Amino acid sequence: MKKCKKIIAMLLALAVFMTGCTNNSITKSQDPKETTKTESSKEESKKKESSAEKSKKCNYDFSIYEDEREFSEKQLAEQEEFEEYLKGIFIDEMSDSTVNAHFLMEHPENYGVEKTEVSWGKLPYYTDTQSATEELNELLDKLQEFDYDALTYEQQLIYDTFERYLETTKTGNEYPLFCSVFSPISGIQGELPIIFSEYAFLSKEDIDDYITLLNTSYSYIEQLCNYELYRMENGYTLTENSLDKVIEQCNEFINEQPNCLRPVFEEKLNQFSGLTDEEKNQYMEAFDQGMQQALIPAYQLMINTLTEIKGQEQSKLGLCNYENGSDYYEYLVRENTGSNRTVDELYMMIQKEMERCALGIAAIYAKNDNLQEDMNSYEYPTEEPDEMLSMLQTALEEDFPKAVNEEYTLNYVPESLESTMSPAFYLIAPIDNPKKNIIYINQGEEYGNMDLFPTVAHEGFPGHMYQTDYFYSLNPHYFRSMLSFNGYSEGWAQYIETCYAYKYSGMNSSLAKAFEYNTSCNFALYCMVDIGVNYYGWDYDDTADFLSQYVGDDEDVISEVYYTMIDEPTVYLRYYIGYLEILSLKKEAKKTLGKAFDIKEFHKFLLEIGPCQYDVIEDRMQSWMERVTE
To answer: Tens of pLDDT along 117-141?
Structure first.
């Protein structure tokens, strides 16, 4: 996620400065290992549905799952049926998209996913709304037929998260025209180069699939462009400001010579063993042909389509200005944050946190009137990302379980994509190769003055990469890799960046606390504008009046913030609300456990429960706290 980088918030006459922020990442999980054992006690078996049935007990790799429950043969049969239900859904979803399956699994066949025709996957056709809803209803009805009490702890966790997931997704299907795939921050124009850059060649078939995807990229983008035109015809468009940005991004990709993808593809071929020189030359010719006849024309088509839209239709700006726009925003908030609080409750929650941070930073300033200068002049101990990650990996052991994996690859965003990409982002490892961690660093000019250390903590240790690796090590059910919970994954990474990155950098505790308050206040501003514009109906002047308290009359900053929130609604909420929900959970645990509270154990609980909605986490935390106090 790119920052509205110029904003400088002023709280109680104290400058609050910007820190790094990152891209959306999705956490994946690994294959399950579940075992059972037979109990011989007749008295215990009488408590089951039939005295003739054997009872069994499940063992888990997760400490929080040690619930000591026993299961009858009938319940075990129900568990097996539930497993088949999950497996069928997983195979259907993974078989639909070559790209999704390739990045999620190195060996899909080990998960029952057979080779199908190379495809980019489902497209957001407006005509599919009814059938998609019917399919979701069928999945939901089937899910609710299972005997919840017969399921294992992990299956119950999947049941709860998937039930909410289906219900939320079904709500989103009611508003098919609100979402564009061409937004400036997270649009397809920025995703395609990363897909082609990171497409792994594990077999010759992978290379052939790559070429097929390249050759079909035009038809894929053509359908997306047609959908965007349909949105326009029905009164839904990006703002002119954002259309200009996306067009510029597409032009940068087209005009770069040589194109950033060619040397990457050539290097992958050279690293792949078993190809003759003749075969390599043939693949290079196929690549060049695919670029010139498909991908480059696809980017030109994006330019032409968005230029046409720019000339014919204007956005209604905030979502609440559209019919049912407020309802859609409520859905979007739930889907992106994982919180079940109302938008009004979240706004008040944000305000309260901003006030707390304002008072906190004012108190520090009262003791050090050079605080602003100290924050501006602070130099981190290193500028090398590798050294930062090494420092962070050691430091995290004070508050978190030891890292389970230290393998990763650092890549740098190609120059032609620097304006499109986030300052940094983490690519999820395949579920069957958890050590394949990739972190991208953006060296673009616009991020030249941004502190890299907290951003690296956000993406690496103990942020996204650490959280993902730890979850992988617990061997969770593979089905969980299919579900996206941005509120959890981004909330965790934002929690790390805000509360621990500065502490682990070596700066004194007072300065680290000031940076923590600073980061929180800035995100609070973005989120309040997001809700104000998309839910409360703020126009440009309202936004300018609000932001002028913190940034003065800087029109560039005000405009950037305003239009970002219109075309990327909830993009900051997924980070900040997730962060606030974790703070809320920690506060509750501290209050309940008292002296028994241990920060490392609390973090261990969050890591073990894994990505899901926050009400599900809170429910499981009650059981965890009961065990802590036993």
So the answer is: 999 987 654 556 788 889 999 999 9
User: Mind listing the pLDDT tens digit for each residue in 49-70?
Assistant: 333 333 444 444 555 666 577 8
Residue pair 489/27 in contact by the 8 Å Cβ criterion? yes
Nearest CA to 474 out of 302, 624, 609 is that of 609
CA proximity to 78, closest of 100, 96, 56: 56
Contacts of 393 by beta carbon, 8 Å cutoff, 6+ apart? 403, 406, 461
Give, for 72, the enclosing helix (H) or strand (E). strand 70-72
Question: What distance in Å separates the CA atoms of residue 325 and residue 159, rounded to the nearest whole number?
Answer: 30
d(Cα 460, Cα 457) in Å, to the nearest integer? 5
What is 80-116 written as a DSSP string? HHHHHHHHHHHHHHHHH-HHHHHHH-S-GGGGT----
Distance, CA of 24 to chain centre:
4
Q: Are strands 438-441 and 409-412 parallel, antiparallel or unpaired?
A: parallel
Dihedral of alpha carbons 448, 449, 452, 455, sign: negative
Nearest to 262 by CA among 293, 290, 301, 220: 290
Nearest to 550 by CA among 19, 21, 17, 20: 17
Q: Please state, in angstroms and rounded to a whole number, the distance separating the CA atoms of residues 232 and 313.
A: 7
Residue 11, strand partner residues: 14
What tokens were used for 148? 């919840």
What span, in angstroms and rounded, lies between the C-alpha atoms of 184 and 241? 10
